Amino acid sequence: xxxxxxxxxSAFAVSACAAWFxxxxxxxxxxxxxxxxxxxxxxxxxxxxxxxxxxxxxxxxAPRALKYYFSTSVVILSIIxxxxxxxxxxxxxxxxxxxTGQSTGQLAILDExxxxxxxxxxANRKALKQLDExxxxxxxxxxxxxxxxxxxSIRKSQTQERSRLQTEIQTYQATIGLLxxxxxxxxxxxxxxxxxxxxxxxxxxxIYGDSTEDLxxxxxxxxxxxxxxxxxxxxxxxxxxxxMSLMARHKLLFEDEPKQKxxxxxxxxDSTPAVFKYEEVQDEVDPEEVKINKKDVHRIPxxxxxxVFHKNVPKNEA
Length: 318
Known about the structure:
Elements: H1 2-29, H2 34-57, H3 64-141, H4 145-157, H5 159-196, H6 198-208, H7 213-256, E1 260-267, E2 275-281, H8 302-309
Antiparallel strand pairs: 1-2
Helix pairs in contact: 1-2, 1-3, 1-7, 2-3, 2-7, 3-4, 3-5, 3-7, 6-7
C-alpha cells in the first residue's frame, strides 16, 4: 500500500509540474488574458487526468462514443500540454539569450571604442616618431655645427605639434580608463551568464562537435523535445499505473476472503423429493436462520443436512 501511495504521489507531482509549465507556457502565448488562460489550462489538466483514470476503470463498460471522445481528448490535451511546456522552456532560454546578447552587445561597443582610442594613440605616437626621424635625418646628413643648430631649430618648431600629440595621447588614455571602468561590470555579467550557459555549450559540443550560437540553439531545442516527450505522458501513465495497482490490490483482498455456500431455505413436498436452494455469499450465515420444517427433517437426506449445518447428522435422525 505504501508503494501505491508513492506511485500516486509521483503521478501527482509530475502532473503538477507539467501543468505548471504548460499553463505558464500558454499564458506566455496568450499574454493578453493571463487569468482566463490559467484557469482554462488548469481545469483542462485536471480533467485530462480524471478522464484517463475513468477510461482505464470503465473501458469495457463505457459507451463507444464516450470512450473514443475521452481517448481523443486525452491525446489532444497531452499534445497541448507538451506545446505549453515547449513554449515555457523556449521562453526561458530566449530570455537568458536576450540578456546575454544585450550585455555582449554593450561590451562589444565599449571594446570598439577602446580599440578606436588605442588606434588614435598609436597614430599620435607614430607622428611623434616621424618628427624624431626628421630631426635625426638632419643630424645625420650634417656633421658641422650648423647641422646641429638646424636640428635644434627644427625640434623647436615641432614643439607645438609635439605638445598637441602628447596631450591627445593623454586624453585618449584617460578615455580608455573610463571605458574600462564602464566595461568591467558588463564583462562580469557576461562571464556569469556564460558560466550559467556553460553546460549547454558542452552539450552542443558533445552532440554537434562545436558550440556556435546556432548549434547551442539546436541543442536546447533537442533537450526541450526530449523533456516534453516524457513529461506529460509519464504523468498520465503514472496515474493509470496507480489505478492498476489499486484495483489489483482491491481484487486481491476480496479474492483472499473465503467464500462459503450458505443454505437459505429447504422446502419439503409430500409427493416430490426435497428441493434444496442456496446461494454463494461471503459472510457466513447462522445455521439457526435456515428455514427447515422440523416435522419433515427425517425426510431430508443426510448429505443435505450435512451441507446445511456443516456437520454430520446422527444415523438415528437420518
